[in-house]
TrEMBL record:
SUPFAM superfamilies: Nucleic acid-binding proteins
Name used for this protein in its record: Zn-ribbon domain-containing OB-fold protein
Superkingdom: Archaea
Any one Pfam family match given in the protein's UniProt record, by short name: OB_ChsH2_C
InterPro entries linked: ChsH2_C, ChsH2_Znr, NA-bd_OB-fold, Thioester_dehydratase-like
Higher taxonomy: Archaea, Candidatus Undinarchaeota, Candidatus Undinarchaeia, Candidatus Naiadarchaeales, Candidatus Naiadarchaeaceae
Domain ChsH2 C-terminal OB-fold: 47-109
Start and end residues of each ChsH2 rubredoxin-like zinc ribbon domain: 11-43
């Protein structure tokens, strides 16, 4: 099955599924169908554990339409334990204490709510893992 077909068949909003190169084992998220390193097109779906750390972040205080209830919130670049980086919202954190290197874990959360239709959208976010303990964590 091609990666694209696999991707369409998966409830991708509820799984952190990327791809892995069958040749050089490079991992990708979001999924790619062509390996950036060895140019191989033999990539297989790969489910990530969902653990990572913050490598960069910004606090959003003026939200786009539909996100008003959430402000202020944190958007961060998270590096997964397996290597790939992704941009995501950070939930359940003290925005005054968020810092680079914080450990985060995948969590499914309400992303936005459409006031007119009442529709609620869910997707992935990451939440802080023991943010108050970060001083005790050794740097990696
Ligand atoms: Zn490769």
């Amino acid at each position: 099955m091609s990666v694209a077909r696999f991707w369409r068949k998966q409830p991708s909003r509820y799984n952190l599924i990327g791809t892995q190169c069958s040749k050089c084992k490079s991992l990708y998220f979001p999924p790619r169908e062509l390996c950036r390193k060895c140019k191989s097109s033999k990539l297989a779906p790969h489910q990530f554990k969902g653990a990572g750390k913050i490598v960069s972040y910004t606090v959003i205080r003026v939200p786009p339409t539909g996100f008003e209830l959430l402000t202020p919130y944190v958007i961060a670049i998270v590096q997964l334990e397996e290597g790939p980086r992704l941009t995501t919202q950070i939930a359940d954190c003290d925005i005054e204490k968020v810092s680079i290197g914080d450990k985060v874990q995948l969590a499914f959360r309400k992303i936005s709510e459409d006031g007119k239709t009442g529709a609620i959208y869910y997707g992935y976010k990451f939440k802080c893992v023991h943010p108050h303990l970060k001083e005790m964590q050794k740097k990696s």
